[in-house]
């Protein structure tokens, strides 16, 4: 696995990433909302207390002290497959000004590594039709259909 | 919402459902494995300790003291949608000898109710192409594509 360009690091989410624009990066994905620091900390602390199941990683541009890419894997505990574990990859986002640097692939490779090393028998995600080729390049293949219901 | 046929109850998973054939019902879905009682209790107790995020329900045939249908919803905590919650429906299974009694729909309706009442902004699941019409009848619509990677 090739390394990141110079000046960038990949690491777990930190509390100070609120000030480093983590939530802005997520805006390429969907509606994020306007978190106060207290709302940020509420969710950050929940995830930290559940660090056996929630893993969020970021890529940071060190000179600018800015988050440029992010992603999560959530480890589900099942009965099937003899108490099998399933990794759910969620909320993959790369800053629109940082495309072409393969940050998306780096994030996915790191999350696959986490999934494998926590013992997941599979790692899954849902993506739009246009992103299927990207995830195929990352080693995934199309299996089922995501269905949604909104209350 | 119509009630269940007489003699059947819908309720949360109980520890004694090991003896009531809960794991056998899951066999319609995939490989389940041969759980010892200790392995069953390990997973059951984990889910119980995480009862704010794991909800598993069953339908039981009272006269026979047998589980005939089952399903789960796992509530994921996100940053997007202002600390939004997403319900993941998993491991929907109905005993092959109990088809046509609408147990699948009852399980899904109950899991949607749980998702809505825990505050999920959406409830999602992955299904095979042939099951899309069933989930459409349950109020779901097709959104994205499930991608899988196996270590
Ligand atoms: C692999 C990946 O990043 N998938 C994301 C998912 O994690 C995210 O939560 C959702 C937001 O869409 P929503 O606002 O409609 O829930 O979009 C995509 O499905
Ligand atoms: C809605 C529903 O019940 N979906 C199930 C999923 O929950 C289950 O975990 C998987 C097992 O397949 P696997 O053995 O290939 O993981 O099948 C289906 O996708």
Automatic annotation (TrEMBL), chains A, B:
It is a peripheral membrane protein. Belongs to the acetyltransferase family. GNA1 subfamily. Its main location: membrane. Keywords: Acyltransferase, Endoplasmic reticulum, Membrane, Transferase. InterPro entries: Acyl_CoA_acyltransferase, GNAT_dom, GNPNAT1-like. The lineage of its organism: Eukaryota, Fungi, Fungi incertae sedis, Mucoromycota, Mucoromycotina. Homodimer. This is Glucosamine 6-phosphate N-acetyltransferase. Pathway: Nucleotide-sugar biosynthesis; UDP-N-acetyl-alpha-D-glucosamine biosynthesis; N-acetyl-alpha-D-glucosamine 1-phosphate from alpha-D-glucosamine 6-phosphate (route I): step 1/2. Its EC number is 2.3.1.4. It is found in: Endomembrane system; Endoplasmic reticulum membrane. It comes from Umbelopsis ramanniana AG. GO terms for biological process: UDP-N-acetylglucosamine biosynthetic process. One of its GO terms (cellular component) is endoplasmic reticulum membrane. It comes from the Eukaryota. It is an enzyme of class 2 (transferase). GO terms for molecular function: glucosamine 6-phosphate N-acetyltransferase activity. It catalyses: D-glucosamine 6-phosphate + acetyl-CoA = N-acetyl-D-glucosamine 6-phosphate + CoA + H(+). Residues 8-151 form the N-acetyltransferase domain. It holds the Pfam family Acetyltransf_1. The keyword Membrane applies.
